[in-house]
Amino acid sequence: MSTIGKTLNQFIIESQRAFPDASGDLSGLLNDIGVACKQIAHLVTRSGISGLGGYAETHNVQGEPQKQLDILSHDIFVQQLGWTGHLAAMISEEIEDVISIPTRYPRGQYLLAFDPLDGSSNLDVNVSVGSIFSILRCPDSTTQPGMKAFLQPGTAQVCAGFTVYGPATVLVLTLGNGVHGFTLDRDVGEFILTHPNLRIPQQTAEFAINMSNQRHWDSPVEKYIGECLAGADGVREKNFNLRWVASMVAEVYRILMRGGVFLYPIDERIRQQGGRLRLLYEANPMSFIVEQAGGLSSTGEQRILELMPTELHQRVPVILGSSAEVARLIRYHQKPE
Ligand code: AFP
């Protein structure tokens, strides 16, 4: 299955064959997500030409100003996936409530949670952005799925993925059997398997955190970053590199490629709201992918995938990446001294 060069569609169909009773619903849904991501890739690449890279006059459910492409990318997901008959409902970063499937369309067995355009504050400076998605099973006998249907732990995810719209457009996917990267061949219009069975190195010398928040950090993060900055002269006895793209998809993709640790921890500014990143459509899908690639993902106190969600848009602290470094940060949270 992991032959480089096969299309996303071939990979999905071959994955389905491992489940003789499969209905084909998930395969159809994944292909439709691939089409939506290709459409968004096209919009992102042309945003400077089309004049769509700027802000809309609106704010999202988080009260954050929306880019026109945030709204258009959201619309593409809803229009591309609503009619297919694979979904029972959707939730989006851009909309407060559950998005129901119109009664004129058949309803499927899956729930989709997505961030249509993560990192969109980078659009006007031409830095990589992306789409993130998480697929859950709709609880049985739920005819009209509401918020409760989505409040499942990350361990219940059937599939998770993200697309990076960067120098190359790459879709990264896990179905619970490893992590695989597909590069968009624009000449053919297909995602091609280029990075099968991605694995995150256990060790790293590269960390990603927004250093401007340093004065707000709790002591475990202060201790860890301080040791990284002390480099070869300090207890770690090696020098570290810092990267901060401010686009989670770009950070996670880099970590999948060469290791690293990404931190968006709780701090004094965001303690009240629980963190910066959203659990259902950012932290959970990225944690599923990172763990499937041999990494770890934690709030510092708990494994993210085991958190029991209480709200659709709840935020959590995120520390993910190379297992040796995340394990060290967990230890520092357990024994801050
Ligand atoms: P935007 O989608 O508003 O650009 O936020 C991106 C993001 O959710 C995540 O992708 C980044 O890692 C993080 O926020 C960057 O946060 P800071 O802007 O506080 O560094």
Automatic annotation (TrEMBL):
<feature type="binding site">
    <location>
        <position position="210"/>
    </location>
    <ligand>
        <name>substrate</name>
    </ligand>
</feature>
<dbReference type="GO" id="GO:0042132">
    <property type="term" value="F:fructose 1,6-bisphosphate 1-phosphatase activity"/>
</dbReference>
<comment type="similarity">
    <text>Belongs to the FBPase class 1 family.</text>
</comment>
<feature type="binding site">
    <location>
        <position position="115"/>
    </location>
    <ligand>
        <name>Mg(2+) 2</name>
    </ligand>
</feature>
<feature type="binding site">
    <location>
        <begin position="118"/>
        <end position="121"/>
    </location>
    <ligand>
        <name>substrate</name>
    </ligand>
</feature>
<dbReference type="Pfam" id="PF18913">
    <property type="entry name" value="FBPase_C"/>
</dbReference>
<dbReference type="Pfam" id="PF00316">
    <property type="entry name" value="FBPase"/>
</dbReference>
<keyword id="KW-0460">Magnesium</keyword>
<keyword id="KW-0378">Hydrolase</keyword>
<feature type="binding site">
    <location>
        <position position="282"/>
    </location>
    <ligand>
        <name>Mg(2+) 2</name>
    </ligand>
</feature>
<feature type="binding site">
    <location>
        <position position="117"/>
    </location>
    <ligand>
        <name>Mg(2+) 1</name>
    </ligand>
</feature>
<dbReference type="InterPro" id="IPR000146">
    <property type="entry name" value="FBPase_class-1"/>
</dbReference>
<feature type="domain" description="Fructose-1-6-bisphosphatase class I N-terminal">
    <location>
        <begin position="6"/>
        <end position="196"/>
    </location>
</feature>
<dbReference type="GO" id="GO:0006094">
    <property type="term" value="P:gluconeogenesis"/>
</dbReference>
<comment type="pathway">
    <text>Carbohydrate biosynthesis; Calvin cycle.</text>
</comment>
<dbReference type="GO" id="GO:0005986">
    <property type="term" value="P:sucrose biosynthetic process"/>
</dbReference>
<dbReference type="GO" id="GO:0000287">
    <property type="term" value="F:magnesium ion binding"/>
</dbReference>
<dbReference type="GO" id="GO:0030388">
    <property type="term" value="P:fructose 1,6-bisphosphate metabolic process"/>
</dbReference>
<keyword id="KW-0119">Carbohydrate metabolism</keyword>
<feature type="binding site">
    <location>
        <position position="115"/>
    </location>
    <ligand>
        <name>Mg(2+) 1</name>
    </ligand>
</feature>
<dbReference type="GO" id="GO:0005829">
    <property type="term" value="C:cytosol"/>
</dbReference>
<protein>
    <recommendedName>
        <fullName>Fructose-1,6-bisphosphatase class 1</fullName>
        <ecNumber>3.1.3.11</ecNumber>
    </recommendedName>
</protein>
<dbReference type="GO" id="GO:0006002">
    <property type="term" value="P:fructose 6-phosphate metabolic process"/>
</dbReference>
<comment type="pathway">
    <text>Carbohydrate biosynthesis; gluconeogenesis.</text>
</comment>
<dbReference type="InterPro" id="IPR020548">
    <property type="entry name" value="Fructose_bisphosphatase_AS"/>
</dbReference>
<feature type="binding site">
    <location>
        <position position="118"/>
    </location>
    <ligand>
        <name>Mg(2+) 2</name>
    </ligand>
</feature>
<dbReference type="InterPro" id="IPR028343">
    <property type="entry name" value="FBPtase"/>
</dbReference>
<feature type="binding site">
    <location>
        <position position="93"/>
    </location>
    <ligand>
        <name>Mg(2+) 1</name>
    </ligand>
</feature>
<keyword id="KW-0963">Cytoplasm</keyword>
<feature type="domain" description="Fructose-1-6-bisphosphatase class 1 C-terminal">
    <location>
        <begin position="200"/>
        <end position="333"/>
    </location>
</feature>
<dbReference type="InterPro" id="IPR033391">
    <property type="entry name" value="FBPase_N"/>
</dbReference>
<keyword id="KW-0479">Metal-binding</keyword>
<dbReference type="GO" id="GO:0006000">
    <property type="term" value="P:fructose metabolic process"/>
</dbReference>
<comment type="subunit">
    <text>Homotetramer.</text>
</comment>
<dbReference type="InterPro" id="IPR044015">
    <property type="entry name" value="FBPase_C_dom"/>
</dbReference>
